[in-house]
Here is the input.
Amino acid sequence: MLQDMSVTQLSNLLEAIESFAPPGLAEPWDNVGLIVSPLCPLDSFAVPRVLLTIDLTASVLDEAIAANSTVIVAYHPPLFQPIKRLNQNVPKERIILQAIHAGIAIYSPHTALDVASGGVNDWLASGLGAGECRPIEPRLCPDTSAPLPRVGQGRLLELDRPVPLGTLLDRLKRHLGLEHLRVSWGERHAESVVGRLALCAGAGVTVIQGQEADVYVTGEMRHHDVLELASLGKTVVLSEHTHTERGFLPVFRDILMKSLNPSPAILISSQDGDPLQFV
Here is the structure.
């Protein structure tokens, strides 16, 4: 049985999320923010429990309902493209209808969380070794047009101590909790020394492509993009899309709990997982 925890209001939760990952930092094509809002005012909507997930699937929603969570923070927006109607015969639309029926609000931070200082991309880089880390595509201050410190899409990481590629791959496996990675070796092999990395969580080829780096790390990439980089002798490491993101959820939970007083119970979904498996 879940223990009773402190209760906050939705307005406080949104303030905590958006002070760390302001929606204005998100990519212009993205759909971030409050996807499903409650019927009552935000400052009177009680939040005793929050469920964090990468993807909002039917099993994750069932988990949220069983846990009496009143808010789901889904990293990927469960509604992305404009729609004209909600149809219960369409699975992703049925999830939204069921969440509304259950009185659950849904928030998505997505790329705002990627670009934030200390966000997803910084977390991804943190498992690869100490060094100078900076955004590939810095976000600019709207008042001065100067780059915001450590804020932006993707990361370039200059390792303080270059390491063999095999060592780097082992570090990434441990950081992501994986047994396997997909590697296009380019002109390198496991003993090749690497010191400069270009990385981007999710599907980051448009961010990392064209950067001068020894190794390119992202979740997924199109076959022909891999071929193009391979033809240039570049090494590509792919971990599958959500593996570059899911490990950040415990970090995000800690950030929110420290920001909220009182803090609700913040749960990480046990039903959320990569839809693809090795067999």
User: Anything to note?
Assistant: The CA atoms of residues 11 and 43 lie 5 Å apart.
